[in-house]
Amino acid sequence: MNSGPVSAEAEVHAVYAAEYAQLAGWAARLVGDPDLAHDLATEAFVRLLRHWPKVTGPRAWLYTCVGNQVKDHWRKRERESRAYRRFASSTPPEAQVAEHATTLSVQDAVQSLPDRLRLPVLLHYFADLSVAQVATSLGLSDGAVKRYLFDARALLAPRLEDVR
Questions:
Q1: Mean pLDDT of all residues in the chain?
Q2: How far apart are the first and last CA of the chain?
Q3: Alpha-carbon span 146 to 128, nearest angstrom
Q4: Over the stretch 36-79, which tens digit does the pLDDT of each residue have?
C-alpha cells in the first residue's frame, strides 16, 4: 500500500489526522475513561504503522484493533473485579449476582456477548461502520455480519428491557 517507510509514515499521518479524534471518542464511550481511550487509539495507530503494507481498509482496521484492545481491557477488568469481590466483599455470592443484574448497563450487556457477536456490534453500532465495512474488516460475508447482528440483538433485547 506504500512505496517505502517515509511514504508509509506520511500515509498513516494522513489517516491519523482524519480518524484519530473519532476513534478516540468511540474508545472513550466503550471504556468510560478518556485517558485510556487515547492510549488505545494511539496504540492502534502504532500498530497500523507496523502493519501498513498489509492493511487495505485503514479505518475498519483501526476500529477492529481498538475493539480488540477494549475487549482485552474488559477481560482484565472483570478478572480484577472478581478477585476483589472474592477477597474484599462480605456480601454473599447470591446477593452479588442480584446486585450485578440490577445494575446491568448497555456496556455490560454488549461486553457479555460471545466474541463472534461482540466485535460486529461494536463496529457497526458504536463505530458506525457499514455492514460491508464490518464484513471486510473481519473477513466475513455481508450475510454473516447481518446474521451476527441479528443474533446479538436477540441476546441483548431481554438484557436491556429495563434500560429503555
A1: 83
A2: 45
A3: 14
A4: 999 999 999 999 999 999 998 999 999 999 999 988 888 777 77
How far apart CA 116 and CA 13 sit, in angstroms, is 31
Q: Long-range contacts of range 77-83, CB-CB < 8 Å, 24 or more positions apart?
A: none
Residue 95 CA to residue 21 CA, distance in Å, equals 41
The H or E element that residue 144 is part of is helix 142-159
Amino acid letter at 101? A
Q: Which of 156, 65, 76 is nearest to 113 (CA)?
A: 156
Question: Domains, the chain, ranges and CATH?
Answer: 1-77 (1.10.1740), 104-164 (1.10.10.10)
- Model-wide pTM > 0.85: no
